[in-house]
Fold:
Amino acid sequence: MRVIHSVRNLHSWRNKKELLEGTIGFVPTMGALHDGHLSLMQRARKHCRTVVVSVFVNPLQFGETEDLGRYPRSFHADRRLCREAGVDLLFAPPPEEFYPENFQTTVRVNSLTQRWEGEARPTHFQGVTTVVTKLFCLVRPHRAYFGQKDYQQCLVVNQLIHDLNLDMRMIRCPTVRESDGLAVSSRNQYLSAHQRVQAGLLSKALRQGRDAIRTGIRNVRTIQARMEKILGNNSDVHMEYLAICDSKNLEPLTQLRGTVVILGAVRLGTIRLIDNLLVRCP
Ligand code: AMP
Structure:
């Protein structure tokens, strides 16, 4: 496995690849790699000749009051995990290399970023779309692998690929979960033992919503109330949103049909967790 830290070396690596056949699969990450990231790498490894992973804690996607400074960083462990997963190239630029002093360009996707995570974290998505665009320009992958865990992000990246006519596909991969249903996340390591138990309630609430839809309940308020009851009994878990939405544009639904997505975000102390489930209305 090759490790590249500089943009210049990445350019020359990519230009050499130009001459070769085969699909380049790309997994962008912020490091502190876990089983969720690993599942994306495995999927890429299965379908692509060359697998590229980036590890970059992107300052642009953190709000001023958010956890950039204490976001977990574990480069040596990440490098080992990538090597073991059969990754061909690990790109890990230092922030000053990636965003030099006079950097002044922003890429923004409009309507899809307004609600939910965009409302809670107003500068988040433009940080994501800016970094992702830069990474796509550098790596020029044929396929990029993203996790369904960040469902809104998947839609936003898809929109960006479409709007900018990028010649590549985004592959959305299933959410990897702990045994109690909690979505694996780099932020889970901040949870105290007590919070860790409570954190399982978010996926429990989503499953409750999914089961209600599957058993034929169509009244959104009834489903919503059932989900909220699971979180509402608990003073340690602060619910930010729980919503049943159109799976393509994320508008909240009043009538359920087709495939819907149940989106949820909670806060435990200072830790924010998000999750979602896609449900096909029978
Ligand atoms: P992050 O390092 O948190 O920016 O995540 C990098 C990629 O891994 C994103 O596409 C995430 O959606 C994906 N990811 C994070 N957690 C999971 C998970 N539990 N299951 C599947 N994919 C995940």
Notes: The pocket of adenosine monophosphate is lined by residues 29-30, 36-37, 39-40, 146-147, 149-150, 173, 175-176, 183-186 (CB under 6 Å). Residues 193-214 form the longest helix (22 residues).
